[in-house]
Design brief:
This protein is α/β, with parallel strands linked by helices. 42% of the residues lie in helices and 17% in strands. It has an eight-stranded mixed β-sheet. 46% of the residues are buried.
Length: 300
C-alpha cells in the first residue's frame, strides 16, 4: 500500500520570533502562530490561497515590535490545521476564527485578511460583532461588490477559477508544483522573485491529497454564498475598514473597489507595481500601511 507523504514539520512550524499553538474551536483543531505582548491590542492575520500562515512572516515581527499581540492562523484545510471533507466555506471559516478568538480569550481585535482570508474578514463584523474592532482587507473587495460586476466573467482570472472547478487536474497541478508556479508568475506584479523564492515552501504544504482537495474546496463552494451569509453581507459594516489593493492585481477587478463604499466606510490604499500577493511582494510597505491604520483606530 502506498503511504501518503507527510508534510515536514520545519515547513509548517518553522522557528522564529513567534510561538506555535494548537487551538480547538468549532469542531476542529487549528494551528496558530502568536507573537508580541499578550496584553497588547490584538491583530488576527488570515492568509489567502494557496498559502498558509507563513505568508505573514514579514508582518508578524513588524506588528509585534510595535506592541501588538499578533495571531496568524492556518485556516481550515490549510497548513497544519485540520483538513476535513467539508466546511471550507466563508460562513464556517468565520465561525472558526470567532471560536479561536474565544478560546484564546481575545476580543476587540483587528482582523486582517488577504484574498480568501479577506472574505472571512468582511464576514466577521457581522458574525461576531463583539469580537471585532476593525478590519483590513488585502486584495479583496467586498464579496458582493465583486459579484455585481458582469465584466469579471470575461477576465483571465475568471478562466483560472473555472479551471479550479474541474476534478483531478487542479490537484495534480498542486502536487507537481506546476500550478503554483503559474499562479505566482501571473498573479504578481513586478516583484516576481518574492514568490518564486517562496514557491517550493508552498508546494511542500500540498504533499498530501487531503491538503490539495481541501485547498480547492473553498473555491469550489464559494461559487454561491449561503442565503444567511448573503443577507449578512448586504448589511453595512459598522467598524472601520482598510482596503489595500495592488495596482497590478489581475485577480480582483479594480472596478469592484469603487463599490466598497456601498458596504462600509472604507479607507483605500493602492500600492504601485504590486500584484495580488501584497504581503510578500511589498512586505515593508504593507507593514507600514497596517501600522498607520492601527494607530488611527480609537483606543480600545
Amino acid at each position: 500500500m502506498k503511504i501518503a507523504p507527510k508534510i515536514p514539520t520545519h515547513i509548517l512550524r518553522p522557528p522564529g520570533p513567534w510561538e506555535h499553538l494548537d487551538v480547538n474551536a468549532n469542531g476542529a483543531n487549528f494551528h496558530c502562530v502568536r507573537s508580541g505582548p499578550k496584553n497588547g491590542p490584538t491583530v488576527i492575520l488570515l492568509h489567502g490561497f494557496p498559502q498558509f500562515w507563513w505568508a505573514w512572516r514579514n508582518q508578524i515581527p513588524a506588528l509585534a515590535q510595535a506592541g501588538y499581540q499578533v495571531i496568524a492562523l492556518d485556516l481550515r484545510g490549510f497548513g497544519d490545521s485540520d483538513k476535513q471533507p467539508r466546511g471550507n466555506d466563508p460562513w464556517t471559516m468565520a465561525h472558526d476564527v470567532a471560536g479561536i478568538m474565544t478560546t484564546l480569550g481575545t476580543e476587540n481585535a483587528t482582523i486582517v485578511g488577504h484574498g480568501l482570508g479577506g472574505q472571512i474578514a468582511w464576514a466577521l463584523p457581522h458574525v461576531a460583532p463583539s469580537l471585532v474592532n476593525a478590519i483590513a482587507v488585502i486584495a479583496c473587495p467586498h464579496p458582493l461588490a465583486v459579484r455585481s460586476l458582469h465584466s469579471r466573467l470575461l477576465s483571465g482570472a475568471a478562466a483560472q477559477l473555472l479551471f479550479f472547478q474541474l476534478p483531478f487536474f487542479p490537484e495534480r497541478g498542486l502536487r507537481t508544483g506546476k500550478l503554483l508556479r503559474h499562479i505566482f508568475s501571473t498573479w504578481t506584479g513586478t516583484n516576481k522573485a518574492a514568490l518564486a523564492t517562496a514557491e517550493p515552501i508552498y508546494t511542500a504544504t500540498f504533499a498530501t491529497s487531503f491538503a490539495r482537495t481541501a485547498a480547492f474546496y473553498f473555491i469550489r463552494q464559494n461559487r454561491r454564498f449561503p442565503t444567511r451569509l448573503t443577507a449578512l453581507f448586504r448589511q453595512k459594516v459598522s467598524v472601520p475598514v482598510l482596503s489595500v489593493q495592488g495596482q497590478k492585481d489581475s485577480v480582483t477587478p479594480a472596478q469592484a473597489y469603487a463599490r466598497d463604499a456601498h458596504y462600509a466606510d472604507v479607507t483605500q490604499v493602492c500600492i504601485p507595481e504590486v500584484g495580488h500577493f501584497v504581503p510578500e511582494e511589498a512586505p515593508s510597505r504593507l507593514s507600514q500601511v497596517l501600522l498607520d491604520f492601527l494607530e488611527s483606530l480609537p483606543s480600545r
